[in-house]
Please model this.
Amino acid sequence: QVQLVESGGGLVQAGGSLRLSCAASGRTFSSYRMGWLRQAPGKEREFVAAITWSLGITVYADSVKGRFTISRDNGKNTVYLQMNSLIPEDTAVYYCAAHASGSYYDLSSYSCWGQGTQVTVSS
Model:
């Protein structure tokens, strides 16, 4: 049984920081990339960042570049999303997901999803 469990969400003021964690269990993810995506109220789910398990190569959406950092701990099978300089527009449910192939922006390219964690940024 594959499981992805996110944690670390919460309420923060604009300009603040949060670190999200995604613990993976149940299978070996070394051949996958891991992504963070988010869904704001009334909006479609969108790509935020991704990382390869093996080499740690990262990709970011333009909207978070320079503010968010994705990283992973292979020994703990955990992926992190460090979010700095948060703005109200970052308010969303954040999901981690295992990316199999194709574009990071294509939601159908993700094979496994976590349950999501809420991030709320107040102005």
